[in-house]
Design goal:
single chain; about 600 residues; alpha+beta; Immunoglobulin-like; five-stranded mixed beta sheet; 13 helices; about 30% strand; binds zinc ion
């Protein structure tokens, strides 16, 4: 019994849980926050107690917090960036620069105590730097107690008050959030309205707010019976004054909430999956129709996402009308409440899919925005093709839209390497094409290299091993290498570190001694294996796979395996013992990211 108890304790404390990589560690944090919300002044007073554990092998002499509401002030990095970039987000433009004192956002730290003693700090825009009086040694914990006040900005992006859909409060990036520390050090990226990286832990959040408000957010409401508002029951507390909502979320790395007095609140349970909650304030029939269709479609979404990637582990998920774009948070999304059904479902699918790639695979988005956005987009495309089947090229290739965006950007000479930190792409469009499209196509091309079945085996095993952790690109590739027995780092390095592209072509075809000689040519700089279909005059087609020598392996799919193509060789020659060839296709099933498909065909088709 005693041993069993100790064993359970070790499991619970995470000590016996296998690490995804030998020597891997990550920091741990628990938050308890008490928020007193003043909806008349759009401000709140907060008290936060953080238990922070340094699991790193390093002695920490300083700490950093994010104070992201400070981005919504004239002259902030977010404001400067938006006013100087060539293609600003039209929703932001120069609006931050015109915010008045009452409309700006801020988070002001009143007092910080470190292990019970008052400690100094320094605010650098959206980052708070704390130099510790005593260092935190490896394996040690500390308590940080903070009093702070915040003002909710007029809605600019993601967070704010009274946005264009009229939602009162979208509370994202709203509290002092401890920065993550990993083997590359502190993540102290100033907030410009873009990416995140957080520490895993438990959140207990108590929000005292006027009784008229319905709240939605990360976590499970602990006092549902007392609160009502569609949680314990439909009752709304009568009279004036406040009620205190207690949300608890376990093993998440952020906490979002929203509040509105007019939210409709409905629920729908996914069989074998989470309870979904829907919060929307639309009164028009066309919009209500969409919100009423959403539950059934999102039930199908969760079933598909679970089977494609791995099970969603939390008991609930909330779709919340936040009224400004769409944004992912643990156990919830803030999304637009209006629009055409397909657009709304696409948004809901994208943001909910981030539960897997952001929520569970917690990569550092500032450094690798292409992982969370690209991987999310990849699975989203497959699910959307199931929910809204399309004819044409999309039916064969659900990533066609991302492929086209990438090809157009490439042909303009405007692609930038995926290793560019998220905030430092020279244009918003370069960021967007890189993160969403090239990130998605990274997986598309990898699947072409590895073969369908092997790819999904590796993809699921990566998710399963790395969920609730912070993998880096090399961790993903290692998992794919293990699944396939192939060498794949070359592809990751070239796809993310350069702007090289794949372009294979049929160079020439001729007959010699009763044989047909086919010469393929690599026109693009990025080497690639090739699958080719050769159609005989009798209409019979044969499939051939040409591995790339860098792979040191072959995909096991139906077809004939040919000798490897040396990566440095521009040409590759095949001899077929017949002169009765009618057509040749490189990548006949449109599975690769070859940027010029017209030269993949022989004889060249005139269109
Ligand atoms: Zn996204």
């Amino acid at each position: 019994m005693k041993y069993l108890a100790i064993f359970k304790l070790l499991i619970f404390s995470g000590i016996l849980i296998a690490q995804p990589r030998p020597g891997y560690w990550q920091q741990h944090v628990n938050y308890e926050m008490h928020i007193d919300f003043d909806h008349e002044r759009h401000q709140f007073e907060g008290n936060q107690i953080i238990n922070y554990t340094n699991n790193s092998p390093d002695t920490l002499h300083e700490l950093f917090y994010h104070l992201q509401f400070n981005a919504f002030q004239p002259g902030s990095n977010m404001d400067e960036r938006s006013r100087s970039i060539a293609d600003p987000d039209r929703r932001v433009g120069d609006r931050i620069n015109h915010l008045t004192k009452d409309e700006i956002g801020f988070l002001e730290v009143v007092q910080l105590k470190y292990n019970g003693e008052v400690i100094d700090f320094e605010t650098w825009g959206t980052i708070l730097k704390v130099t510790l009086s005593q260092p935190i040694l490896p394996g040690k914990s500390c308590v940080l107690a903070m009093d702070f006040i915040g003002q909710i900005p007029a809605q600019i992006r993601r967070s704010g008050r009274f946005n264009k859909e009229g939602v009162h409060y979208s509370m994202a990036q709203w509290y002092p959030k401890l920065a993550e520390y990993d083997r590359y050090g502190w993540n102290t990226t100033p907030y410009v309205g873009r990416e995140f990286y957080g520490i895993w832990g438990d959140f207990d959040v108590y929000i005292s707010i006027d009784k008229s408000y319905t709240l939605a957010g990360t976590g499970i409401l602990q006092n549902a019976a007392e609160i009502g508002h569609g949680y314990g029951s439909d009752h709304k507390a009568k009279g004036n004054g406040k009620q205190t909502w207690h949300f608890r979320a376990e093993n998440v790395h952020d906490f979002v909430w929203a509040a509105d007095p007019k939210y409709s609140h409905t629920t729908h349970a996914v069989p074998g999956g989470p309870l979904m909650r829907f919060f929307y304030k639309e009164k028009k029939n066309e919009h209500i129709d969409n919100w009423e269709k959403l539950p059934k479609l999102m039930e199908r979404f969760f079933i598909l996402a679970d089977s494609l990637v791995g099970p969603y582990p939390y008991p609930e998920f909330s779709f919340i009308q936040g009224g400004d774009g769409g944004m992912e948070y643990p156990m919830a999304t803030l999304m637009l409440g209006r629009g055409k059904l397909k657009g709304m479902v696409g948004l809901a699918v994208h943001e909910a899919m981030h539960s897997w790639f952001y929520g569970l695979i917690g990569t550092n988005e500032s450094r690798y925005p292409w992982i969370d956005e690209g991987f999310t987009t990849f699975v989203e495309n497959i699910i959307m093709q199931d929910l809204f089947p399309e004819e044409g090229p999309r039916a064969t290739n659900p990533h066609f839209g991302n492929y086209m965006r990438y090809v157009q950007q490439f042909k303009k000479g405007a692609t930038e390497p995926l290793t560019t930190p998220a905030d430092h792409y020279t244009t918003n469009s370069a960021y967007s094409v890189a993160s969403y499209s090239q990130g998605c196509l990274f997986l598309v091309q990898l699947k072409y290299i590895m073969g369908e079945e092997t790819f999904w085996k590796g993809f699921r095993s990566f998710f399963n091993k790395w969920k609730f952790h912070h993998p880096h690109p090399e961790d993903f590739i290692r998992e794919m290498e293990k699944a396939s027995g192939m060498q794949l780092m070359w592809f990751c390095d070239l796809w993310t570190g350069t702007t090289q592209a794949v372009d294979l072509a049929v160079d020439s075809v001729y007959e010699k001694n009763n044989e047909t000689i086919i010469v393929l040519r690599r026109l693009g700089d990025l080497p690639s294996p090739a699958t080719i279909a050769i159609v005989n005059q009798d209409g019979k087609a044969d499939l051939y796979h040409i591995p790339l020598d860098l792979m040191y392996g072959r995909k096991s799919e139906a077809g004939n395996s040919l000798p490897p193509w040396k990566w440095a060789a521009e040409k590759y020659t095949i001899s077929i013992p017949t002169t009765k060839i009618k057509e040749i296709y490189i990548d006949p099933f449109f599975q690769s990211v070859d940027i010029e498909r017209k030269n993949n065909v022989w004889p060249i088709k005139v269109e």
